[in-house]
UniProtKB/TrEMBL annotation:
<dbReference type="GO" id="GO:0005829">
    <property type="term" value="C:cytosol"/>
</dbReference>
<keyword id="KW-0808">Transferase</keyword>
<comment type="similarity">
    <text>In the N-terminal section; belongs to the glycosyltransferase 20 family.</text>
</comment>
<feature type="domain" description="Trehalose-6-phosphate phosphatase C-terminal">
    <location>
        <begin position="1021"/>
        <end position="1289"/>
    </location>
</feature>
<comment type="similarity">
    <text>In the C-terminal section; belongs to the gob-1 trehalose phosphatase family.</text>
</comment>
<dbReference type="Pfam" id="PF21141">
    <property type="entry name" value="T6PP_C"/>
</dbReference>
<feature type="region of interest" description="Disordered">
    <location>
        <begin position="74"/>
        <end position="108"/>
    </location>
</feature>
<dbReference type="GO" id="GO:0004805">
    <property type="term" value="F:trehalose-phosphatase activity"/>
</dbReference>
<dbReference type="Pfam" id="PF18572">
    <property type="entry name" value="T6PP_N"/>
</dbReference>
<dbReference type="InterPro" id="IPR041064">
    <property type="entry name" value="T6PP_helical"/>
</dbReference>
<dbReference type="InterPro" id="IPR001830">
    <property type="entry name" value="Glyco_trans_20"/>
</dbReference>
<dbReference type="Pfam" id="PF00982">
    <property type="entry name" value="Glyco_transf_20"/>
</dbReference>
<dbReference type="GO" id="GO:0003825">
    <property type="term" value="F:alpha,alpha-trehalose-phosphate synthase (UDP-forming) activity"/>
</dbReference>
<feature type="compositionally biased region" description="Acidic residues">
    <location>
        <begin position="79"/>
        <end position="102"/>
    </location>
</feature>
<protein>
    <recommendedName>
        <fullName>alpha,alpha-trehalose-phosphate synthase (UDP-forming)</fullName>
        <ecNumber>2.4.1.15</ecNumber>
    </recommendedName>
</protein>
<comment type="function">
    <text>Catalyzes the production of trehalose from glucose-6-phosphate and UDP-alpha-D-glucose in a 2 step process.</text>
</comment>
<feature type="domain" description="Trehalose-6-phosphate phosphatase helical bundle">
    <location>
        <begin position="886"/>
        <end position="989"/>
    </location>
</feature>
Length: 1327
């Protein structure tokens, strides 16, 4: 084998780098020697229009020959390959676990100390392929053979590559060849891509690390669209299989997500498009160098952006930096729909004309969008990529407008700028036309909200809209399976068209993600875009996305089985939205039942107070609500009251009823000419009406307006022709000799302008709205809003009927205010409804009509949009409730912890605060206050969650919990005010809660801050938590860290210290520190159980192993006995106060007193005696266990083997030094504590850093102050300060953070990982 064939690409797999010739060429047997053979190197040439299959097969065969594993058709080679997925020694899976920097925020580390602001955007993919089905048996056979080759190549190459042995680089190239084929035609090759991803398994992250640089290099050298294609391929895989493999790509390449979706994606994209245009105009034969494409530069790919957009440090008056850097941008609504809010047409002159639309969606949403010009509406305008121009990219420029046929556009701009008269090619003429469209849109956007077109491939759009959307989903969700296209009986056709639906949803999703900010609300509409929730949450998990379904949700019984390819991903995708709205409770119940029956591992809950379902699935939570759509009442009423409209209505009645007998009634019906509207059934019932009641012949007239649409769809065209033939038949069958001009049916197919439509509403006697299935059908509401004296014939298929029925407008008690058609297929009953409406007295008609009119006027379109957009009804907001049970109390405090974590994340990232944060905390606070019998005393009963027997009660003093919530609410008000940059104003806000008053608080804070500032920058910072940084709560599970405290601590760690650790006696989990902490990972290490178990992030955890398994077993037995003891009525209270009972790594904690000292001394003594008895029974000689007592707790320790001493926080410091090796002998060290258990931590730090230790203690205990001072004197440490409460320490940290200008020289001098050396002889001796 030649050296060229085995040359190793730089950095791949950790194998030594070997130089590779620029072009590795392999000859193919049977080819002429003068013909250029295919390159084996993937991603090394521009994308070409030739069929890539043959080329990929040849390259795969060549790779397999080099690996000495040739493919033999018809022979199963699996037995020759070791496909076991066991990890080899050379695979660093710890490294893979650490590389999670790009994983969505809710599934990974929220942020590290230094925030990465890498951004950028790429153009939309250029899909030049057509999805074609096999046209012959021979083609099908070829496809099967090709698939066999590719799957064999994947298995073989993966097996060799993962072992990191000989030929692993050649095997990696084989896998890359397969990937390149998939990215050439992402939708057509999704089966191959799925096989590749599934085969890679746990090695996916490593694979992307090695492959993505080649993908970037290809894009930035040859202007290929592989990055976008890779993103879409993973999205398609995730949608089809309900996975989240995209997170693995983010983990492998932390900058990938920022380059596609970051805050500066548009600037990144502009520069990338400039490169594309340059390459498109001058295809150089020589390979261009790529600054970003190389592996060594990939991690810093943001340099393209950062070299222009580096954030400069701001200078602040008085050397004060803002404690928080907040964005006060208002939340926008980004509305996403298939149909646009405007109609666009082309004049005969060739210029474009844009008019405001008038459809149902526009009427519903336009009032919301028009409230703010910064709102964005994304939709398809019908101007898409045509077949002959598909090779050009489509994307969005920095103004949000589409750049169509980008490569040609550059040439057109040049012509326009030079004002030269140059003949344009047909392609350039098309571009020039599109530029005029951009000008029209730009003008529109100046005077309204921002309208951004989503441009897609026209073939994809036709398949997505005319195929899956209206050929399958529309009839299926209306429960009309007879209208589902029979082509979907073929699984291959269904799969191919499904890919187009996914691709269009993907383009809508990525456009929405790129145009959104973190605080925006993205509102997706209707069945065309049901996948956007899944796709957008995969792209960026922090987005808030809502979905509203405007049509019914009543799929047929076989929907989830016969059409599983489509149905299953859609149901799962809907569960990814933050909230989903349905028109009726009937539709929502159907969806919930479908989820329960077909989607595994879901948790469904119903809240009757809010009428809300909450569904948890795969780590996501979705709220389901019912929001009946309405109309803008004022618009219709104003037109109805217009004198001209009234005159026009009288003329309509005269024109129609003037040809009828006296007492005739005008029935009016208007709708789209759609099979879901029940027009055919209506006409059959109308025919039967005259057959049953011949005396109505010559009197009554049905004026039917059916606006023709979708004539291009066969099922629609046939239906419309049949209905019009039926109308003609009725007119021929029923005639009146006395009134020869009378016609039973007047059938019109042209739409009516709004004023003319309302005139018809006024003219009618009876409105007829009888769809087979409809989402809401606003026509019924329009009729009775405009004409409350009219009667209404309404079918149960209309959502309006469900709403009115639920409001008791059709009941025995309240009366039947309309004529309900239960089943439009029941012609007899339908005809009877017509007769009942025609013969109803005028007084009854007016009474019922006015009653419904009043209801509709109250529930208008503003109420619909306000209720849906209001966050209060969703699972994200804590609802106000009565807290009576232990489980309710702990669940409520846990919810506040989640809300506080979100607040802290927003503040630290500089994102605007969402309104529901304050609502949640206010509701939680009010719930606790109203549940207290007196003052701050909360009495709680046992429940199932607490595990206690019925009848057990405990009273808590929740003063601390309420106080901390008040401070957080004040903090939220501060950071959203104009004073948010003023740190002193924030400290003043905290001081307003200080018992000694704000003046005393300010002075005490300033003194403590002066000492903190003396240290300038701390190399290490060790602190206790409860009592030091947070006041004691009534119970540890409720000791949730407040948001303001977490922000102060995080900012102090970011600006004033290098290595920070919170060392606590609490355990890590199971009511431990991680459950009550709200600081994001990356700021502090947590040393739990007195530093015996450490947690930095999920991949970095370690424990002390100084005790044996026998000792651990002994401690577990002791713990079981203590649990039994605390179940006795006499001692049960101790289980629910303070720390309760906690099992740590190496010791047990049992609470003996609450923070307010309410437990009687005799009861504490009895507990002490029982604990001593248990310890002595198991360890009478005291060789293994020892018991200690503090003010609030008893602790039982397993003694460390070293000298038989118990493990304390000093040993915890030694353990973290041993594992992480922070250099404590160089640089300053800060230590904070509040009781004697913290003294060993201070002593250990003094041994290492001596006089460079700075320590602040939260205590007023003179005895403890003397001990701390004496200990510091032993090590010549004079940097000691005492404060009265945690509030003061936090204020001092905030002050120091804002006022200390970090000494960069000091920071650079911190040799964090240097080994420790004593800093002087005295310290050496003390060691």
């Amino acid at each position: 084998m030649s050296e060229a064939a085995t040359a190793v690409h730089s950095y791949a797999n950790g194998i030594d780098q070997v130089a590779t010739p620029p072009d590795v060429i392999f000859s193919i047997e049977g080819e002429p020697q003068n013909q250029i053979s295919p390159k084996m190197d993937p991603f090394d040439r521009p994308k070409h229009d030739n069929d890539p299959i043959e080329d990929a097969v040849k390259r795969c065969h060549k790779v397999l020959e080099r690996l000495e594993c040739p493919f033999i058709a018809g022979k199963d080679k699996d037995g020759d390959i070791d496909e076991s997925d066991e990890l080899t020694e050379s695979e660093d899976h710890d490294e893979m676990a650490n590389e999670d920097d790009g994983i969505p925020a809710n599934e990974r580390k929220v942020e590290t100390r230094k925030m990465d602001c890498t951004t950028g955007q790429l153009v939309a993919p250029k899909y030049s392929e057509k999805i074609e089905t096999a046209s012959s048996a021979s083609e099908s056979s070829d496809d099967n053979e090709y698939m066999a080759v590719f799957k064999y190549t994947i298995r073989t190459c993966y097996t060799i590559w993962k072992k990191r042995q000989k030929n692993s680089e050649i095997a990696l190239k084989g896998l890359m060849i397969i990937l390149e084929l998939c990215l050439n035609q992402p939708a057509a090759r999704d089966e191959i891509f799925s096989a590749l991803v599934e085969t890679l398994g746990f090695n996916t992250v490593t694979f992307w690390k090695n492959v993505v640089p080649k993908v970037f290099d290809s894009d930035l050298t040859f202007a290929t669209p592989y990055r976008e294609a890779l993103l879409f391929s993973l999205v398609l895989y995730d949608v089809n299989y309900s996975k989240n493999r995209l997170r693995e790509l983010y983990a492998a390449i932390p900058g990938f997500r920022q380059s596609m979706l970051g805050s500066r994606a548009k600037q990144f994209g502009e520069r990338y498009r400039h490169l594309q245009m340059k390459i498109a105009r001058s295809r150089a034969s020589s390979r261009m160098s790529s600054k970003v494409g190389s592996m060594e530069n990939l991690p810093s790919m943001s340099s393209i952006v950062n070299e222009v957009f580096i954030d400069e440090e701001q200078t602040h008056v008085g050397n004060q930096q803002p404690l928080v850097d907040m964005s006060h941008d208002k939340q926008r609504v980004i509305n996403v729909s298939n149909a646009p809010p405007v109609s666009i047409s082309r004049k005969t002159s060739g210029s474009w004309e844009i008019k405001q639309g008038s459809g149902g969606l526009v009427a519903c949403v336009d009032p919301v969008m028009s409230a703010d010009k910064k709102n964005i509406w994304l939709s398809n305008l019908g101007v898409n990529m045509q077949e002959e121009l598909k090779e050009h990219s489509t994307t969005t420029n920095s103004l949000g407008l589409p750049l169509i046929k980008q490569a040609c556009a550059g040439e057109v701009f040049c012509v326009l700028e030079r004002n030269e008269k140059k003949e344009l090619t047909p392609k350039q003429q098309a571009v020039e036309s599109d530029m005029s469209l951009l000008s029209v849109l730009n003008t529109y956007n100046k005077h309204s909200y921002q309208l951004n077109p989503v441009v897609v491939n026209q073939d994809d759009y036709d398949t997505y809209y005319g195929g899956i959307s209206n050929g399958l989903l529309w009839p299926a969700l209306h429960n009309l399976p007879q209208y589902i296209s029979t082509c979907y009986d073929d699984p291959e056709t269904l799969r191919n068209q499904w890919c187009a639906y996914v691709r269009v949803n993907y383009l809508f999703s990525i456009n929405a993600a790129r145009n959104s900010r973190a605080q925006d609300f993205i509102w997706i509409h209707d069945y065309h875009l049901m996948l956007c929730g899944h796709i957008m949450r995969s792209l960026e998990s922090s987005l808030e996305i809502g979905f509203f379904l405007h049509i019914p949700f009543q799929p047929p019984a076989n929907f989830m089985t016969k059409y599983k390819t489509v149905a299953d991903p859609i149901i799962r995708a809907l569960l990814r939205f933050t909230k989903v709205g349905f028109q009726t409770s009937r539709d929502r119940e159907t969806f919930v039942k479908l989820v329960r029956d077909h989607i595994k591992r879901t948790k469904v809950e119903y809240d009757s107070r809010l009428d809300r379902y909450t569904i948890e699935h795969e780590g996501w939570t979705c709220s389901l609500g019912v929001f009946p759509v309405s109309i803008k009442i004022a618009d219709f009423v104003n037109i109805a009251k217009n004198p001209q409209t009234i005159i026009e209505a009288e003329e309509i009645r005269k024109q129609i009823l003037g040809k009828c007998a006296e007492g005739g009634q005008l029935f009016f019906s208007v709708e789209r000419f759609d099979y879901t509207k029940g027009i055919s059934e209506k006409l059959r019932a109308w025919q039967r009406y005259f057959e049953k009641y011949p005396d109505r012949i010559g009197k009554d007239v049905l004026l039917q307006v059916a606006v023709t649409n979708r004539r291009s769809v066969d099922s629609y065209r046939q239906y419309q022709d049949d209905v019009m033939a039926l109308a003609d038949l009725i007119n021929e069958k029923f005639k009146s000799e006395e009134y020869p001009d009378w016609k039973p049916v007047i059938f019109e197919t042209d739409g009516l302008p709004r004023s003319r439509l309302i005139a018809h509403y006024l003219a009618m006697d009876i409105g007829v709205v009888t769809p087979s299935k409809d989402g809401m059908n606003l026509v019924a509401k329009e009729m009775l809003v405009c004409n409350p004296t009219a009667s209404l014939v309404l079918s149960t298929g209309a959502g309006t009927e469900v709403q009115l029925s639920n409001a008791q407008f059709y009941s025995e008690q309240e009366g039947k205010c309309y004529h309900r058609v239960e089943n439009i297929a029941d012609t007899e009953a339908f005809a009877n409804n017509f007769f009942a409406a025609a013969t109803e007295s005028k007084d009854t008609r007016v009474k019922h009509g006015e009653k419904i009119n009043q209801f509709l006027c109250v529930h208008d379109i503003d109420e619909w949009s306000d209720q849906f957009l209001d966050p209060k009804w969703t699972h994200e907001v804590i609802s106000q409730c009565e807290v009576k049970q232990l489980g309710q109390f702990y669940a409520l405090m846990s919810r506040t912890a989640q809300t506080r974590r979100q607040i802290v994340e927003c503040v630290l990232k500089g994102l605007p605060i969402r309104p529901h944060f304050a609502i949640s905390l206010e509701n939680a606070k009010n719930s606790l206050e109203t549940s207290c019998a007196e003052g701050t005393k909360l009495t709680l009963e046992a429940d199932e969650e607490s595990g206690e027997e019925k009848g057990f009660k405990i009273t808590y003093d929740i003063r601390d919990e309420l106080s901390e919530m008040e401070k957080d609410l004040a903090f939220l008000a501060f950071i959203q005010s104009d004073e948010y940059e003023n740190a002193e104003e924030f400290i003043k806000t905290i001081g307003s809660f200080y018992e000694g008053g704000p003046v005393l608080f300010k002075n005490e804070v300033k003194q403590a801050a002066e000492m903190l500032q003396q240290g300038i920058h701390y190399n290490t910072f060790f602190t206790d938590r409860d009592g030091t940084l947070k006041s004691y709560a009534c119970s540890y599970p409720t000791s949730v860290q407040p948001a303001y405290s977490a922000v102060i601590q995080a900012q102090f760690a970011r600006r004033c210290a290098t290595f920070c650790a919170i060392v606590t006696t609490a355990p890590l989990l199971h009511t431990g520190i991680l459950e009550v902490a709200t600081i994001p990972e990356g700021y502090y290490a947590y040393g739990a159980s007195a530093g015996r178990e450490w947690y930095l992030n999920p991949a970095q955890q370690f424990k002390d192993r100084s005790f044996s398994a026998v000792d651990l077993t002994l401690m577990n037995k002791v713990f079981e006995l203590i649990e039994e003891l605390l179940e006795k009525p006499e001692f049960k209270t101790f289980k629910w106060i303070g720390s309760g009972i906690q099992k740590h790594c190496g010791h047990i904690t049992i609470a003996k007193q609450d923070v307010n000292g309410t437990i009687p001394t005799r009861k504490v003594t009895r507990l002490y005696e029982e604990l001593v008895r248990i310890v002595n029974d198991f360890d009478p000689n005291g060789t293994t266990l020892t018991m200690r007592e503090s003010d609030l707790d008893f602790k039982i320790y397993v003694k460390a083997k070293l000298k038989g001493r118990i493990f304390n926080k000093g040993h915890g410091i030694r353990l973290v030094r041993e594992k992480l090796k922070p250099n404590m002998s160089k640089g300053n060290c800060l230590v904070c504590g509040d009781n004697e258990s913290d003294i060993p931590m201070l002593e250990e730090c003094l041994k290492l850093a001596g006089s460079k230790v700075y320590t602040i203690w939260v205590t007023t205990d003179k005895s403890l102050q003397e001990k701390v001072t004496h200990l510091c004197d032993r090590y010549s440490c004079k940097n000691i300060h005492f404060v009265s409460c945690p509030q003061v320490l936090l204020g001092a940290m905030a002050y120091a953070t804002a006022h200390t200008l970090i000494d960069e020289r000091n920071r650079k001098a911190d040799n964090y990982y240097d080994s420790d050396t004593p800093i002087d002889a005295e310290e050496a001796g003390s060691n």
